[in-house]
Amino acid sequence: MKTALDKIIDYKREEVASLKIKLSASTLHSDALRRTPPRGFAQQMLSIAKTDENALICEIKRKSPSAGNINTLKNPILAAQSYVDGGAACISVLTDGPSFGGSLEDMIAVRDAVSIPVLRKDFMIDEIQILEARAAGADAILLIMSVLDKEHALSLHQCAEDLGMSILLEAHNEAELEQALSLPSPLVGVNNRDLKRMVTELETTERLSSMVPTDKLLISESGIKTTEDIHRLRKTGARGFLIGESLMKSEDIVKSVRELRDIK
Ligand SMILES: O=C(O)c1ccccc1NCC(=O)[C@H](O)[C@H](O)COP(=O)(O)O
Fold this sequence. Notes:
This protein is 45% helix and 18% strand. The chain is of the alpha/beta class. It has one domain: TIM Barrel, CATH 3.20.20.70. An eight-stranded parallel barrel has the order 1-4-5-6-7-8-11-12, surrounded by seven helices. The protein has a two-stranded antiparallel ribbon with strand order 2-3. A two-stranded antiparallel ribbon has the order 9-10.
């Protein structure tokens, strides 16, 4: 049976095919190069983590396959501004429509409204999506190891790097993490959510953390809700945290971000 992730990748292939009919890679490439250079997403994460503070990537997320509706979010800019006021290091904006209710327009609006780096969170399988992301202003992209073999991940990594973007590499198990660690980006995310079984366990970061060398920044992703969760994850050496649902559901986003950021 197909998992939610398999279904997402199926329709991403269709989206990529239509994008290629609608826009040429060379036009997108010129648009991407005409943009002002990307904000340093990796630099921002690394410099905060170096001070032993928590570098939070706060996510704009309306709905998800695991949670259903999270926040109708009429204006993503308001949430993004609260993230900035709370002290987020960077912002991630889900741009997938069918499963997450996001759009590239959300990312553009957020990127224009804030001055911190912004990641286009989507399921990247083709260079054209990366060109589209940079042409729209994105500073960083996510590469999910479970949907890319090593060669494919390396070529997408190269494409993003050539455009000056930062790359967050995501792994959920030992083999994926090995693949992520073989790539140059210093940002290594361990996703606590098993995207195939849709189960979220913070133990995943605890189990895999010892594989991550000190010259990489370990970023724990998904299922992070409380100050206790951050306490627990900091013990693994993680100083980066990617948080969506719990912040999107918070009644006071600024306060929640501040609390999670300030935990030592
Ligand atoms: O969140 C999902 O249900 C999901 C399902 C299938 C593929 C990806 C999915 N999530 C993407 C993410 O990586 C999370 O949005 C991110 O790590 C934040 O997680 P959370 O704090 O649990 O919202």
